[in-house]
Protein 1
Amino acid sequence: NAGVTQTPKFQVLKTGQSMTLQCAQDMNHEYMSWYRQDPGMGLRLIHYSVGAGITDQGEVPNGYNVSRSTTEDFPLRLLSAAPSQTSVYFCASSRRTSGPTGELFFGEGSRLTVL
Amino acid sequence: TQLLEQSPQFLSIQEGENLTVYCNSSSVFSSLQWYRQEPGEGPVLLVTVVTGGEVKKLKRLTFQFGDARKDSSLHITAAQPGDTGLYLCAGAPANAGGTSYGKLTFGQGTILTVHP
């Protein structure tokens, strides 16, 4: 049972470098999202997608890009890494519901350090 | 922007003690979820509460949604070392239709340590 798979688990970047965090889910979920987790701040939404070809900004989108070409994949791109982007990044997926929000299934996280 | 204030941020107790974690907001949420996270892993859903005043029990854990759907609490009875972890509350916006599209507002989290 793979669920939500994130790669890489750990990454160290220098300021100004770019990189892509990969996220894939095998549950055929319509909704996918990226959160970052910083000490004392819980999880904050970066970008989300309600289906292939549809993405939108969350609470802290600056410095990040996303695309959703397939239902399964939702990569997060850091355009020019900054030390403020040092964080743990979580990808999540959930099933479309007509009622109350469904369960979010999270990956194991990607720990990024920007020097 | 909807905010969720979670308290306390840290809780260190002895095995067998009871505890309560609070999650408060000035905003109304269509539903509220509680997640538990272990080190090196992603959060895992414990419960979803939907109706104002709703109470749900999961073994020794009791979850309550405020009448006005602005706050929630998690009460653990007779805590055990296995309850140690980070507890997160998360609210879904009270928009039309009630669906959150996977967008949740999270509290800051409560790090619970239960000592044997």
Protein 2
Amino acid sequence: DAGVIQSPRHEVTEMGQEVTLRCKPISGHDYLFWYRQTMMRGLELLIYFNNNVPIDDSGMPEDRFSAKMPNASFSTLKIQPSEPRDSAVYFCASSASHLGSYNSPLHFGNGTRLTVT
Amino acid sequence: AQSVTQLDSQVPVFEEAPVELRCNYSSSVSVYLFWYVQYPNQGLQLLLKYLSGSTLVKGINGFEAEFNKSQTSFHLRKPSVHISDTAEYFCAVRPNTGGFKTIFGAGTRLFVKA
């Protein structure tokens, strides 16, 4: 089990540029989550998918943020245009529901540290 | 809606001493409770979880937590800490009525001194 894989590990970009963060969930997991971690706000849930369909995007801060999950093994989080206040660590996590039960833990990737200058 | 309060932002402790990290939650429905640990430059890893049944749950690395429904608490304990336990610890809550939306506390940084 390779775990949740995120790329890149670090991204430094200039304000106004487009940024794309990538995530490969654990095979067989049907839920995928994007979180953002900052010192000021802690861990914030941005959006999550079930079977590739967005279920709740109420945490997405602005229209500059978008997320897609074209298939069960890949998701992207895009910021366009990026701003310095978007600097944070972005985590992807996945989990599996079993027979309608939702008690499985989240499995996190190692995150992408984004710096917007 | 659910919320989680971790009462201490930082906890310094000497090696081999006991430690308790406090967590209180608020919810109008029954919940699942989790503790995660985050080492530097890594993602969060599950320490333990409470789903139902026995209120004392044991996790990895010698940690345990006790669910107290009347006090809406889920405090994490370890009887003797090691330098390698230095990390950030997150308490999390999820409604057990369906869905995976998980809310995390602000985290407690445990610093173990030699």
Protein 3
Amino acid sequence: DAKTTQPTSMDCAEGRAANLPCNHSTISGNEYVYWYRQIHSQGPQYIIHGLKNNETNEMASLIITEDRKSSTLILPHATLRDTAVYYCIVRAPNSNSGYALNFGKGTSLLVTP
Amino acid sequence: NAGVMQNPRHLVRRRGQEARLRCSPMKGHSHVYWYRQLPEEGLKFMVYLQKENIIDESGMPKERFSAEFPKEGPSILRIQQVVRGDSAAYFCASSPPSRPSGNTIYFGEGSWLTVV
């Protein structure tokens, strides 16, 4: 699976949009971009995923560049409960590890009042 | 639809004892994964199972650790003769049967093992 690069940490004011970038310049054509987050002392939570089109759900939006080498997760109105570590993971449907996710270090997002 | 259920949520064991962690996948999910998170560290893949089969155990320590996912009942992660270094959060995840477009993996809330 392709490697991803994320900033170590970011701050965001409550009520503002949080834009979390991810670089995945070696992504292959069949690899999806997944986003998870882990709030302290909880299990990882699935947020959203996409292949090449932008995606939106009740939690967030995912913007993938046309060349697919980077993406941005957008939390439109961040709340204090969005403080968490956010993981961008690139994953192929037929990876040798049976679709297991490889978590990197992620971005630690702090939402401030 | 209940999520991935793990129990116990917290477990304390003395050195040398055995720890058994259980995981019931989401309804309709036939794939189970176990991950470990050591204190202040990232999530590390341990093992991937389907019903009655271990598909990938490349992340499992070679000794004392084993996992199973029987035809009936939950998946079990078993740690024999626990040592203090086994103290960690153990997360189970599940996903539905494979699709060409991939499948989303959902996690449980974890089991926190403390070895004293």
Protein 4
Amino acid sequence: DAGVIQSPRHEVTEMGQEVTLRCKPISGHDYLFWYRQTMMRGLELLIYFNNNVPIDDSGMPEDRFSAKMPNASFSTLKIQPSEPRDSAVYFCASRRRQGNTEAFFGQGTRLTVV
Amino acid sequence: DQQVKQNSPSLSVQEGRISILNCDYTNSMFDYFLWYKKYPAEGPTFLISISSIKDKNEDGRFTVFLNKSAKHLSLHIVPSQPGDSAVYFCAASALGNQFYFGTGTSLTVIP
């Protein structure tokens, strides 16, 4: 298996523009997580899905952030409009099932908003 | 509010010695704990885990200890190697739901 695939790896955009981050989870995994890595908060959970349904989006910082999972093999995280403080590394992770199993992470998208 | 805390942002250890990374948590409902390792420009990779029914789990050079009464978790690496230099994240979950991560500890193993 290719693992969790994220695109793009790097994104530089201007403040106010829309940004879309993409994730393909590992086939057969029921759970998908979006995390943001910052120095202050470490790996911060933004939202997670179970069987394509959003379960907890309480970590989404503002209404400017939205996430979708239209099918089991694809998810997007959208920021509209983007702001400089959104600059961070965004990770997607997937997990096979509930219970004592680990999550597998993608390589991340480094977002820079100028 | 951080439910999982790693109070040491960095740690330096001589090659061959023991590295001890610490983690504290506040939620008594957590029943599964993990350590992840992260190299620059890569995603975190799973290292080792422990269930709350155990107090120790060992995998080669890596051992995780759990002290439930103190709500404390530690990772021991013996012997430490230069390739172990990375950021280590502690994580916890309750009832098989989402993982809560700490802020990470950057380990440097000096040759």
